[in-house]
UniProtKB/TrEMBL annotation, chain B:
<protein>
    <submittedName>
        <fullName>Tripartite tricarboxylate transporter permease</fullName>
    </submittedName>
</protein>
<keyword id="KW-1133">Transmembrane helix</keyword>
<feature type="transmembrane region" description="Helical">
    <location>
        <begin position="202"/>
        <end position="223"/>
    </location>
</feature>
<dbReference type="Pfam" id="PF01970">
    <property type="entry name" value="TctA"/>
</dbReference>
<keyword id="KW-0812">Transmembrane</keyword>
<feature type="transmembrane region" description="Helical">
    <location>
        <begin position="316"/>
        <end position="339"/>
    </location>
</feature>
<feature type="transmembrane region" description="Helical">
    <location>
        <begin position="384"/>
        <end position="401"/>
    </location>
</feature>
<feature type="transmembrane region" description="Helical">
    <location>
        <begin position="469"/>
        <end position="487"/>
    </location>
</feature>
<feature type="transmembrane region" description="Helical">
    <location>
        <begin position="46"/>
        <end position="70"/>
    </location>
</feature>
<feature type="transmembrane region" description="Helical">
    <location>
        <begin position="20"/>
        <end position="39"/>
    </location>
</feature>
<feature type="transmembrane region" description="Helical">
    <location>
        <begin position="244"/>
        <end position="264"/>
    </location>
</feature>
<feature type="transmembrane region" description="Helical">
    <location>
        <begin position="109"/>
        <end position="134"/>
    </location>
</feature>
<feature type="transmembrane region" description="Helical">
    <location>
        <begin position="351"/>
        <end position="372"/>
    </location>
</feature>
<dbReference type="InterPro" id="IPR002823">
    <property type="entry name" value="DUF112_TM"/>
</dbReference>
<feature type="transmembrane region" description="Helical">
    <location>
        <begin position="169"/>
        <end position="190"/>
    </location>
</feature>
<feature type="domain" description="DUF112">
    <location>
        <begin position="19"/>
        <end position="436"/>
    </location>
</feature>
<keyword id="KW-0472">Membrane</keyword>
Length: 330, 502
């Protein structure tokens, strides 16, 4: 009974909050690291509510209060332009630590390289990495192709007409497809989709011949697919039978990473509080169990390690972006 | 499909605790739906964290209740004050608001509620019996089929163009242009943004709808201050049996349209409600009554958008594929409870799936029971003097526009489109083609480009695939018929198409 009352009260208070336009921030002088946080922390999510980034952050939210002095996390969806709207909002936020947000790699690297960049990689202070989600080369379950070699043979037979689904252009998938074409010496026809959901439908329905998919996106429909290879260093425990590209003599490693960041000029003491709190959450066994349940491959890296990964990424993709004429910044 | 599973689902859903959460969900959903701008998507997103204190079954029952409730609630403000807070209710406002002005707010609200109930429940029957089979139908739709479907949906525009075809087309083209603002979905380049970050994320169509309809209506009414907007006395509050029988075929037709199109990911209630409205107008013996306060014009879109809701659960449960943003949020909710919707969900979590399906039947009943007694209360709202009502409507419109993305920018958009709406009224340009093209624009463009990518630029792809060929042929025939009747009998058709003649 108590739970019901609590829930009803919560509904009322949320409605009230909405009517008043969601509170608004009181001004408090930043820099009092010792007292951080003494009010709710605002979490910017650059993708739609219910998407992978949101669901992951919601799992963080479950453990947030116990690590951050019982202050809640409030979610702020700044959706648009492939995450660029939200990512920019993080870099432009106040530096008091009360606004942080989820970021995705290599999205931020590619957007920062784009002629329309609205932020630079240096504008972020990295808190931590939480997810490393490898890419897979996927075909329909009943496809005659069984290996990367079959895929190459089929692609050559179709002479550039073989279609491969990717999510978006100027994205991790797009770059991965270009890298594959380079490594395997084949031509493919790229078909960009707006999200993993419609990409998955298109492959299931046979409207594209293959696709590049993330582990997290394809876990839902394992029985509908055949995985030719996973682009990670080693096989993944969730798909033990799926060989890596390396096992098939293709030096291809590709993934999407999710993490959290604050604007670059954040008070170092506050950043440290955030980093420590996140570390505690991310190493909590209950959290890890939750992550496995939602099919998100958890992979914690601390702020410095994550920053290193981000910078390496930029170095890696820059030549590719230039080669395919995607970099129009010069 | 297994009857014993459904029955045990009902047994689970009918426990007092689950009933209570179903009720709370429906209530919260109705409130969310009544507030403009706060549609099912933001409603579920906001209330999702609150359900995490519950075990999975009551939590998901509650979330589904919020979803259905919001679909119901959206019609109330559309009818009473011309604020379609959600795309699914835009078509409802066309005739609903006219009915309210004529003192028939009661019957209009009742038609909306009953049609929602009938179509929602029939849609659930479809979901119950055919979920696994129907899911495979959706898979037949690749980018070329979506493109053909969008062409078919666009053929509706011609019937929404009002007196002058040219003015209607101006409105439609403007809708497409607005849809193009922001970062383009395929190559990621921004268009018409002038480097402005707010424009980069695109113009949100809820703000446009609120602006054109609600704000624009107030601006027009301000011109003749003093003249009562709701001229007629408030008549009876419920539907007569005769009216119900008159509406029944409409409800069934709109269920079929809404449910089957709802199976297709991306085909939102915004699209299906317009298509159902158009079909009613085409089959009606008196198409000239549409747009002037026709009950069928309320029942059709309301039925269709609820049937779309049921249809959308088929790909969601069978493949984990959400048909639209609201179901995407719901999917997030499922995943937070460790439930992976997909082909194996019906096997792995059979008890949960059937409990949720059973609870949706119950939810529809709850909503009807909840909404019918509220009709007199809502209907009396039109008796509030306009000098008090108008500022209230304005405030709620602005809150609504703001609450979609929590950006002041969207309030500005609503005001600007309010002025555009007022201007459109003065020079008699219809607003509905703009909205329809705005809704369809992105998916139209995306599917066209994907198709041409697949075919290396050859448009033959649209004519060589059976489903897309049939859809295109149907669109062509409908268009031809509309144009023929229009030019053959310009006089009668002028009246029939005088959408916004008031």
């Amino acid at each position: 009974m108590k739970k019901w009352v609590k829930l009803a009260a919560a509904i009322v208070s949320v409605s009230a909050l909405l009517l008043t336009g969601c509170g608004g921030n009181q001004k408090t002088p930043g820099g009092e690291a010792v007292n951080f946080p003494d009010k709710p922390v605002n979490m910017i999510i650059a993708f739609t509510a219910g998407g992978s980034s949101d669901v992951q952050a919601r799992i963080i939210d479950k453990y947030w209060k116990q690590e951050f002095k019982d202050q809640p996390l409030t979610f702020d969806y700044q959706v648009g332009a492939g995450g660029q709207v939200g990512f920019t909002a993080i870099t432009k936020a106040k530096t008091d630590g009360y606004t942080i947000g989820g970021i995705n790699v290599p999205h931020i690297n590619l957007q920062a390289l784009s002629p329309q960049a609205t932020y630079k990689i240096e504008d972020f202070a990295f808190i931590c990495q939480v997810v490393k989600d490898p890419n897979l080369l996927v075909v329909q379950a009943n496809s005659p192709m069984n290996s990367v070699a079959d895929f190459v043979a089929e692609a050559k037979k179709k002479d550039g007409k073989m279609t491969i689904g990717v999510v978006g252009t100027f994205t991790a998938h797009h770059i991965a497809a270009l890298q594959l074409m380079d490594l395997l010496g084949i031509e493919l026809t790229l078909v960009p989709f707006t999200g993993a959901a419609d990409e998955n439908v298109a492959l299931m329905g046979g409207h594209v011949d293959a696709m590049i998919g993330n582990l997290n996106d394809v876990m839902r429909d394992v029985s509908k697919y055949k995985f030719l290879a996973i682009a990670s260093e080693e096989r993944h425990p969730w798909l033990k039978d799926v060989p890596t590209f390396k096992e098939q003599n293709v030096e291809f490693v590709s993934d999407i990473r999710r993490g959290f960041a604050a604007p670059k000029d954040i008070d170092p003491a506050v950043l440290q509080v955030l980093r420590d709190g996140f570390e505690k959450i991310c190493t909590n066994p209950d959290y890890l169990a939750d992550m496995e349940q939602i099919g998100q491959p958890a992979d914690y890296l601390n702020g410095e390690e994550f920053a290193e990964v981000v910078n390496t990424y930029t170095e890696q993709v820059k030549p590719l972006v230039e080669k395919y004429g995607l970099d129009k910044s010069n | 499909m297994d009857f014993s599973m459904l029955l045990s689902g009902f047994a689970t859903a009918l426990t007092p605790e689950n009933l209570l959460f179903g009720f709370l969900g429906c209530l919260a959903g109705t409130l969310v739906g009544v507030l403009p701008g706060l549609g099912p998507t933001s409603g579920i997103a906001i209330l999702l964290p609150l359900t995490t204190v519950l075990p999975p079954i009551p939590a998901i029952i509650m979330l589904a209740g919020i979803y259905y409730g919001a679909m119901y609630g959206g019609s109330t403000t559309a009818i009473l004050v011309n604020i379609p807070g959600e795309v699914g209710s835009v078509a409802t406002a066309l005739d609903g608001y006219q009915l309210a002005k004529q003192g028939k707010a009661g019957p209009a609200l009742a038609a909306a509620a009953i049609s929602s109930f009938v179509a929602g429940t029939l849609g659930l029957v479809g979901l119950t019996f055919f979920a696994p089979t129907l899911a495979n139908v959706a898979l037949q739709f690749g980018p070329p089929e979506y493109f053909a479907l969008m062409i078919l949906a666009l053929s509706v525009v011609i019937n929404l163009t009002g007196r002058s075809l040219v003015k209607g087309l101006v409105s439609a083209v403007l809708g497409f242009l607005i849809a193009m603002v922001g970062m383009e979905s395929v190559t990621g380049y921004s268009r018409f943004t002038f480097g402005n970050m707010d424009l980069m994320s695109g113009i949100d169509f809820i703000s446009v709808i609120i602006g054109l309809f609600a704000v624009g209506e107030i601006f027009s009414n301000l011109e003749n201050i003093g003249a009562p907007v709701y001229k007629a006395k408030l008549e009876r509050l419920y539907l007569t049996a005769k009216e119900f029988i008159y509406l029944l075929p409409t409800m069934i037709r709109s269920t079929i349209v809404g449910f089957f199109l709802g199976l297709l990911p991306g085909c939102s209630p915004g699209v299906t409600s317009f298509m159902a409205y158009d079909i009613e107008k085409r089959v009606s013996k008196h198409p000239e009554t549409f747009g002037k306060g026709e009950l069928r014009g309320v029942a059709a879109p309301e039925g269709a958008n609820n049937a779309t809701t049921s249809g959308g659960f088929v790909p969601l449960l069978s493949f984990g594929i959400p048909s639209g943003p609201a179901l995407a949020v719901l999917l997030g909710g499922f995943m937070m409870y460790g439930l992976q919707p997909g082909p194996t969900l019906f096997e792995k979590n059979a008890d949960l799936v059937w409990a949720v399906i059973a609870s949706m039947y119950i939810g529809n009943v709850i909503l009807l029971v909840l909404n019918l007694p509220l009709i007199p209360m809502w209907a009396r709202l039109v008796k509030v003097p306009y000098s008090i009502l108008a500022p209230m409507v304005l405030v709620f419109s602005f809150i609504g526009a703001y609450s979609v993305r929590f950006k002041l920018f969207d309030v500005g958009v609503a005001i600007i489109f309010g002025l555009i709406g007022w201007l459109f009224k003065k020079i008699e340009i219809p607003t509905t083609p703009l909205i329809l093209c705005l809704i369809l624009g992105t998916i139209f463009e995306t599917s066209l480009r994907q198709s041409l990518n697949m075919s290396h630029g050859s448009i033959a792809i649209f004519f060589s695939r059976p489903i897309s060929l049939v859809l295109l042929a149907v669109a062509f025939v409908l268009l031809a018929v509309s144009l023929y009747t229009r030019f053959k009998n310009p006089e009668a058709i002028q009246d029939a198409l005088a959408e916004e003649s008031e």
